[in-house]
Amino acid sequence: MVDRCIAILSGRRVDEATLLVLAGPHAVTVIRGGESGVEGYWPRVWAMRGLLYAWDPTASGVVIAGRNDSHWRVREMSAKVVARRHLDDAHDAMTALLDDDVARVRAARNEP
Length: 112
Fold this sequence. Notes:
This protein is an all-alpha fold and 112 residues long.
């Protein structure tokens, strides 16, 4: 699962079954092209959230890179994963989120 989350966060497509595991029934809407489809931000949000529960250090790079995502939900999840996984090497990179326009992103840095 970690490899599939990394693939999504790296811009590669994964099978529909993976999206269904990560998101449940809401994935059907996205798979069918709703809410910007599989090219939109939801698969990245789900993949990042998946890394809250399934983890391997090989995911550190995509998690840290998530701080620069264009969508705030992905940035928020990136901060949550960094906090939960205690990624000390991400500290400097994540300080950029202190000035994020979205309050939920700023607050996520402090969530365990």
